[in-house]
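Hi support team,

I've been running sequence recovery on a batch of backbones for a student project. Most finish fine, but this one hangs at about 90% for roughly twenty minutes before it completes. I'm not sure whether the input is malformed or the queue is just slow. I've pasted the structure tokens below so you can try to reproduce it. Let me know if you need the job ID as well.

Thanks,
M.K.
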């Protein structure tokens, strides 16, 4: 009988300790939450959301088959300027995105990495080129861009390419056909 009582007391103490530990962890996590910064344009068609100190997601609402569809890319805030990963649906949205991020960060967009030749990634390439922004891509993306009526990006990225933009290192990687035949991953 004594053994059972000790076992029950031990389980209760263990359970209380676990509850207190979980409660303490939850309190610490709650106190460490950071406000997510989101900036939008007046019409709500473009927003940038902070992921960390130097990386933001850009999201634009474009039209695809008559429906409003979001498109996402990245803004990299480097010591030498801003780098976009993908443009937007078209030149108008891309121009507005560029103006928005250049105003926010007080830096120029110097480069863009085009991950594939769909409209939501390369649609603003003319706006990029008009501003002298270097548009990096794979040779396959450049070829598909031309075939689909877009201006050609540089086609300078290999299967694996390591780039450095100011203080930020970026790697592009072609994993093979996936979402598109030319899609690359950027990390």
């Amino acid at each position: 009988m004594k053994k059972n009582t000790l076992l029950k007391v031990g389980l209760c103490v263990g359970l209380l300790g676990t509850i207190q530990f979980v409660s303490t962890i939850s309190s610490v996590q709650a106190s460490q939450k950071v406000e997510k910064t989101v900036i939008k344009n007046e019409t709500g068609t473009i927003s940038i959301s902070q992921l960390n100190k130097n990386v933001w997601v850009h999201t634009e609402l474009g039209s695809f088959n008559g429906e409003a569809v979001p498109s996402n890319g990245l803004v990299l805030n480097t010591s030498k300027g801003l780098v976009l990963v993908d443009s937007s649906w078209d030149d108008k949205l891309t121009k507005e995105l560029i103006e928005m991020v250049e105003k926010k960060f007080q830096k120029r967009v110097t480069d863009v990495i085009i991950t594939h030749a769909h409209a939501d990634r390369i649609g603003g390439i003319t706006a990029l080129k008009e501003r002298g922004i270097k548009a990096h891509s794979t040779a396959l993306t450049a070829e598909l861009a031309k075939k689909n009526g877009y201006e050609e990006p540089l086609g300078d990225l290999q299967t694996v390419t390591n780039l450095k933009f100011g203080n930020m290192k970026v790697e592009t990687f072609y994993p093979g056909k996936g979402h598109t035949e030319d899609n690359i991953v950027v990390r």
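--
Follow-up from support: It reproduced on our side and the slowdown came from queue contention, not your input. The radius of gyration is 24 Å. No action needed from you.
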